Amino acid sequence: MSSFSAAEEPKQVVQTAQKFSRTIELKQELDYLLFLPKDYDAERADGWPMILFLHGAGERGNDLERVKVHGPPKQVESDPDFPFVLVSPQCPKNETWDVAELNGLLDEILSKHNIDTDRIYLTGLSMGGFGTWSLGISNPERFAAIAPICGGGERLSVVLAAGSRKDALKKLPVWAFHGGKDPVVPLAESESMIDAMKRVGAEDVKLTIYPEAGHDSWTKTYKDPEFYSWLLQQKR
């Protein structure tokens, strides 16, 4: 016999299905450096290979000179024979790399310049290494290869990928780099992402560890001609 009186009967719990939807206006804006090879030809039939470079947290702001401190933007200042179109955006102060903005920038570059869409390469260091993982695993179909340096990412975004994105991830070449004694971004961050790529069936993935290096694992990487040779060997 129930111990509840009529007035004390518990109310029936009812959950109803709902949907949230809204349309918003989105403004995207990024300053960036653009380098074109000295023999760049806007009419060349096969287009030009391109590198999208993402800098680290220390180069954020509204002064594009800061973007030239490390990596390919620093190299092209003294290397007119650099064989890639190089696009180096600057992340605004107190922000991190936004995938939607980077995709918008990439769309604009492709609309304005003669780029070989089968030879677009993505690389970045530290915060830019995280951005490289994020953009690369969100839109793997856009890139011929990615090279994240001392970065990390969302492992679940890889291991739970399905359908066409999973197929594209399996085909995406990855060469990651990390210092063995990195006190800022632990080596485990890169190891975890490489392991996740292997778990979805990616075969062309590798991690180079500099055993004695700290956070700066980018200087040695970007100075190595083999790095750029490897990029040029990759085609979507």
List its salient traits.
236 residues, single chain, alpha/beta
Q: Can you lay out the helices and strands and say which pair or pack?
A:
Layout: E1 31-35, E2 48-54, H1 71-75, E3 85-90, H2 99-112, E4 115-125, H3 127-138, E5 145-149, H4 155-159, H5 163-171, E6 174-179, H6 187-199, E7 205-210, H7 218-223, H8 225-233
Name the shape in a single word: globular
What fraction, in percent, of the residue positions are helical? 25-40%
How many helical stretches?
Answer: 8
Straight-line N-to-C gap: 72 Å
Can you tell me about this structure?
With 236 residues, this protein is α/β, with parallel strands linked by helices. Helix content is 31%, strand content 19%. The chain contains 8 helices and 7 strands; from the N terminus they run ββαβαβαβααβαβαα. The protein has a 7-stranded mixed beta sheet. Helix 1 links the parallel strand 2 and strand 3. It is globular. The mean pLDDT is 95.
Short recap of the structure:
By secondary structure, the protein is an alpha/beta fold. It contains eight helices and seven strands; from the N terminus they run E-E-H-E-H-E-H-E-H-H-E-H-E-H-H. 31% of the residues lie in helices and 19% in strands.
